[in-house]
Specification:
Largest sheet: 6 strands, mixed
Radius of gyration: 34 Å
Helix content: 55-70%
Distance between the termini: 44 Å
Shape: elongated
Structural class: alpha/beta
Strand order of the largest sheet: 6-9-10-3-11-12
Oligomer: single chain
Strand content: 5-15%
């Protein structure tokens, strides 16, 4: 059953050939129509030679004007019919290709969304772009074989049958000659498939390098490393060019054979037919018909060769798509189990405690909880488990988190990562997310995140355009935009990673107090080592090596735990005054540690 225009269906990920078959059978009526129209068009191409031979033998040779006019009228009618069939065939095949194109785009995008935070860890952005742009186009082109490809096979046998009615020798030559052409082309197609595979892989790697180069250009300028990366990109371009030459070489030979061999074949059959006409074995009209049949046969033979070429390229592209669709983060089997109707259980009906047995952290409903650790990675790993972005035995109330349907988890629990993407578009769209909030709601979220000065400072306010990743904003501005977006989403549970690490102390104090006010009565967890943030928390967990070492209010932990006191006060002890960051994305405020630590930025 075909999927609707908005639902691509479930792809067959067992192999490239099975994926191409799934794309084909996902639109059975349209493919059937394309095959019928393509076959009718191909068969009708064989009719003009037959009608022309009748006009010669029954009209011109005998001088029968009425017969000549009748056959000429039939020839005109066949020409009109062929034109209509060609238009309808092309229109249908265009729809088939577009359906395959957008169906593949949808399954790739859906799977990228499903991978979520695991995506950057498994595949580069350049690879995804290459798949979503180049490979989907190749796959869609492959479906041409379902129309003219099927018609070519039928036309081949029709021509053979017509020649058999004239000469057994010529029919045998055609029946043997066409498969022989395919045998000659086969090795070149295999070589091309290998070259295409290497080319696509190198193309994806180079696209990833270009994305990294563009994204970190300001950092590279500051470090003086732009020349090194530029040289690396030039070397990758040279290697890609060499692979392109290999692909072009194979393609040139295939195209040469595709045009040359059918022409030689046509010449050989025409020479045999001319000798037979000279010997009186066949009539002049039959000679003309044979020439027309073989000339028409060039079309299906060319489609055979092009179709084989398209299938080879399509298998290469489909293999890359299938490999991407088979990417699974750790613990994916739990998500699959939780998303099946039989296994999924509903989440707790009311706000409930999130417990992480691995660390001992408990996030109580309605409270602001904070995680403090010398290694930032300890806190982010716990957030990943609590947000179900990593395998764990986390419980939500009385049920395991990984037993709840993933859609429900994503709707109720939001992880606000400090490095979350900001897509190109307006500031309003960046803050609104997938919702359509009113102006008052946006204004409240912007104020709570201390982002009002950002709106006022941009020429068009909320309608100002942001670059990809918000690169026309400072680090602190991007952080406040992300926080405004998270607050506007108003999830039942908000898990925020370092939401204030890139702003000055005054802004940080205001952000902390406004965050608490905005999330009053809602479940919130933040990771931070800032006393300004920790002072607002209801519960603070001090983590050592990823486990809870102490828990309590910030003031109590300061008084009773020297390790905690050294950790959270190290910035003040060193006299480090935080500043608003106007540096590329990813650079954070640095506070010199009082004791050796290994800070792992996420």
């Amino acid at each position: 059953m075909a999927a609707s225009s908005t639902e691509p269906g479930v792809p067959d990920r067992r192999g490239p050939a099975r994926y191409l078959w799934w794309v084909t059978v996902s639109q059975p009526r349209r493919v059937a129509a394309g095959a019928v129209l393509g076959s009718a068009w191909m068969v009708c191409l064989t009719l003009p030679p037959y009608v022309l031979s009748r006009a010669i033998d029954e009209g011109l040779r005998t001088g029968d004007r009425s017969a000549l006019v009748g056959w000429c009228a039939a020839l005109f009618g066949i020409g009109v019919l062929n034109a209509w069939l060609a238009i309808m065939r092309h229109r249908t095949m265009t729809r088939i290709r577009l359906d395959a194109y957008f169906r593949t785009v949808r399954v790739v995008v859906d799977h990228a969304t499903r991978l979520g935070a695991a995506l950057p860890r498994r595949v580069s952005a350049g690879e995804v772009v290459t798949i979503g742009h180049s490979d989907v186009g190749v796959i869609s082109q492959t479906l041409t074989v379902t129309g003219p490809g099927v018609g070519s096979v039928i036309a081949y046998f029709v021509v053979a049958a017509l020649l058999l009615s004239v000469s057994t020798l010529l029919a045998v030559v055609v029946l043997v000659g066409v498969p022989l052409l395919a045998v000659l082309i086969g090795p070149l197609l295999s070589r091309l498939q290998g070259a295409e595979t290497a080319y696509r892989e190198r193309q994806g790697a180079l696209a990833a390098t270009l994305g990294d180069l563009a994204g970190g250009l300001r950092v590279l300028n500051g470090l003086g490393g732009k020349g090194v990366f530029a040289a690396r990109y030039r070397e990758g371009s040279r290697q890609l060019r060499d692979e392109g030459y290999r692909v072009g070489s194979s393609m040139s030979w295939i195209q040469a054979f595709g045009l040359g061999l059918p022409t030689l074949f046509l010449a050989a059959v025409t020479w045999l037919a001319a000798r037979m006409a000279a010997q009186g074995t066949i009539t002049v009209g039959e000679l003309v018909a044979i020439y027309g049949y073989v000339a028409v046969l060039v079309v299906p033979v060319t489609f055979f060769i092009e179709g084989s070429y398209d299938i080879g390229r399509g298998l290469v592209a489909a293999r890359r798509v299938v490999d991407f669709l088979n990417l699974e983060p750790q613990g994916w089997e739990n998500e699959n189990r939780a998303n099946s109707e039989e296994a999924a259980v509903p989440g707790p009906a009311t706000p409930s405690v999130l417990r992480d047995p691995s660390s001992g952290v408990e996030v109580a409903p309605g409270l602001l909880t904070a995680l403090v650790s010398a290694r930032a990675s300890d806190g982010t790993e716990i957030v990943d488990r609590l947000g179900r972005f990593a395998p764990s035995s986390v419980t939500w109330g009385s049920v395991r988190l990984d037993a709840v349907a993933l859609d429900e988890v994503r709707a109720r629990i939001l992880v606000a990562d400090n490095e979350a993407d900001l897509f190109a578009g307006t500031l309003r769209a960046a803050v609104s997310g997938r919702g359509d909030p009113d102006e008052d709601a946006i204004a409240r979220a912007v104020e709570a995140a201390m982002a009002g000065d950002i709106v006022l400072g941009l020429p068009d306010g909320l309608d100002a355009l942001l670059d990809a990743q918000g690169r026309n904003l400072s680090g602190g501005q991007r952080q406040r935009v992300r926080l405004a977006r998270a607050l506007l989403a108003d999830p039942e549970v908000l898990l925020a990673v370092e939401p204030t690490s890139a702003v000055d102390a005054h802004t940080e104090a205001n952000m902390a107090s406004r965050l608490r006010a905005a999330r009053d009565g809602r479940t919130t967890l933040v990771t931070s080592t800032s006393p300004l943030v920790l002072d607002q928390a209801d519960v603070v967990y001090h983590l050592v090596d990823g486990r809870v070492a102490a828990v309590g209010r910030h003031a109590d932990l300061l008084a009773g735990h020297p390790g905690y006191r050294r950790l959270v006060s190290r910035g003040a002890e060193e006299g480090d005054e935080a500043e608003e960051q106007d540096t590329p994305q990813g650079q954070k405020r640095f506070r010199p540690p009082a004791e050796p630590t290994h800070e792992a930025l996420r």
